[in-house]
């Protein structure tokens, strides 16, 4: 540690435990409710038209308010934002678990999104400002990256167990335990380094434009999935999003204290991370959905068995993140981890394009999931670290929020885009083979074959998207490894491994 650098917090590793618990809660909540949704719909008599709002209410609030939440963490203090976000998320989860009607559940889910948008950037920013020594930072981000990558799959498994053996309400109540433990730990052991808070005024026009623009974008993809890409409301939402976000960029380039300083996203390496990470998430989220339906509808797995079937991918992510990414991050350039990582994940996805109704789990799905996990874990870990590496302390929260925003928007795009492709391919296949149906059994088989054909068609797109993520990582990211001197960040700061590097993200 260089002379004059602030001493390392002796409780930083204990703090990492509670930051990781909070991160796990936020990430698994994105999928745990999906498994519980059919039971909740039946119990609360939610209409088919309204059931999507159980997911959309959360993603709209979360995705739309992330930049705002990141800047609030910068202004008000990251530890404070972290604790408030945890307690608010727990309260909203309790409200949703106790819901007696549709409105109460949808309101609770929106409230979860609001507090999640505060909590997620605060969690990553705390991690970034507490771990500033290169090798320790690599280990900490390895753990964090594994949780970020594997949490969604863990949510599928946990959702299946809770729904099958308790009831759907526990998919929400379970957050209370995570949040209370993390908040108590944060109060006891987390210490936010002095001098890293942003004291500028809040950019209200930027907040309004960013929030409305991101909400329009996320909602546009939601409507595209249900109404079609050419529907008036879909096109209108995309046009509104483009206008609002363009206006946001203009405002941010001119105001004295912008919500999102453009230096955060225009710096080559961070821009490359945001783009490649967003693309990778597009492929991953669609895959979770397809494989969940494949296992339960086509193969007849129970929710619990379906969740367990994803475990090899979780193990692969943890291995890739902690044993490959973390060990090599201080020795290897980030693009030489991210690019090959996305390529390995693409190979895993390529194997899944061969999926059939009677495909063997051990022979086809298992190796594909392992490769996906290893590739994504290896790529996510340096991506999470690099996205906040070298960021000025006052911008840590909003840089972290951009990591979350790229993931949230990527997830929304992935779900809508790949679902639409799958649905179209399914319909085409069924129409082309309908004349061959001679019995009810044949009709049922055709239905399953068409469904799986649709999944395979969409997975081919996911392969291409992951390859594009790899190309962007190779071409756009040119910084040196994070254990020694590297290229300038473009922020007017030197990025040197032994320089304290505060950052924020989710």
UniProtKB/TrEMBL annotation:
Keywords: Antibiotic resistance, Cell membrane, Membrane, Transmembrane, Transmembrane helix, Transport. It is a multi-pass membrane protein. Residues 483-506 are annotated as: Disordered. Residues 15-481 form the Major facilitator superfamily (MFS) profile domain. It is found in: Cell membrane. Pfam families: MFS_1. SUPFAM superfamilies: MFS general substrate transporter. The chain crosses the membrane at residues 15-37, 52-69, 81-100, 106-129, 141-162, 168-190, 202-222, 228-251, 272-295, 301-324, 336-355, 361-384, 454-477. Its main location: membrane. It comes from the Bacteria. Coiled coil: none annotated. NCBIfam families: efflux_EmrB (TIGR00711). This is MFS transporter. It comes from Streptomyces silvisoli.
């Amino acid at each position: 540690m260089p002379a004059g650098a602030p001493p390392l917090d002796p409780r930083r590793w204990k703090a990492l435990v509670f930051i990781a618990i909070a991160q796990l809660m936020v990430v698994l909540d994105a999928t745990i409710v999906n498994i519980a949704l059919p039971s909740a719909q039946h119990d609360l008599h939610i209409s088919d038209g309204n059931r999507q709002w159980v997911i959309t209410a959360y993603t709209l609030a979360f995705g739309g308010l992330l930049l705002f939440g990141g800047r609030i963490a910068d202004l008000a203090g990251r530890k404070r934002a972290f604790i408030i976000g945890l307690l608010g998320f727990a309260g909203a989860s309790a409200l949703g678990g106790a819901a007696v009607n549709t409105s109460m559940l949808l309101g609770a889910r929106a409230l979860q999104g609001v507090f999640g948008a505060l909590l997620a950037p605060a969690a990553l920013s705390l991690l970034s400002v507490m771990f500033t020594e290169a090798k320790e930072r690599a280990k900490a981000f390895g753990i964090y990256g594994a949780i970020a990558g594997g949490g969604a799959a863990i949510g599928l498994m946990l959702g299946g167990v809770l729904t099958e053996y308790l009831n759907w309400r526990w998919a929400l109540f379970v957050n209370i335990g995570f949040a209370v433990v993390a908040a108590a730990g944060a109060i006891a052991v987390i210490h936010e380094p002095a001098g890293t808070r942003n004291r500028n005024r809040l950019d209200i026009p930027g907040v309004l434009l960013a929030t409305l623009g991101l909400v329009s974008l996320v909602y546009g993809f939601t409507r595209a999935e249900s109404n079609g890409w050419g529907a008036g409301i879909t096109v209108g939402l995309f046009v509104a999003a483009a206008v609002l976000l363009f206006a946001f960029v203009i405002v941010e380039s001119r105001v004295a204290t912008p919500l999102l300083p453009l230096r955060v996203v225009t710096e080559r390496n961070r821009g490359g991370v945001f783009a490649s990470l967003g693309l990778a998430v597009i492929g991953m989220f669609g895959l979770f959905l397809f494989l969940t339906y494949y296992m339960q509808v086509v193969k007849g797995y129970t929710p619990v068995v379906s969740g367990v079937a994803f475990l090899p991918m979780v193990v692969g992510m943890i291995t890739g993140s902690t044993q490959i990414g973390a060990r090599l991050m201080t020795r290897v350039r980030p693009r030489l981890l991210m690019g090959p990582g996305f390529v390995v994940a693409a190979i895993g996805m390529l194997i899944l394009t061969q999926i059939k109704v009677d495909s063997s789990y051990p022979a086809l799905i298992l190796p594909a999931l392992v490769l996906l996990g290893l590739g994504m874990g290896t790529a996510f870990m340096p991506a999470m670290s690099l996205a906040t590496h070298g960021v000025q302390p006052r911008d840590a929260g909003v840089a972290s929020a951009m990591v979350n925003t790229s993931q949230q928007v990527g997830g929304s795009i992935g779900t809508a885009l790949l679902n639409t492709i799958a649905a179209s391919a399914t319909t085409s296949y069924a129409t082309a083979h309908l004349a061959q149906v001679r019995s009810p059994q044949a009709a049922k088989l055709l239905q399953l074959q068409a469904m799986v054909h649709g999944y395979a068609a969409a997975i081919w797109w996911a392969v291409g998207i992951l390859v594009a993520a790899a190309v962007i990582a190779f071409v756009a990211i040119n910084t040196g490894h994070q254990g020694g001197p590297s290229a300038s960040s473009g922020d007017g700061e030197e990025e040197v491994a032994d320089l304290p590097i505060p950052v924020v993200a989710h």
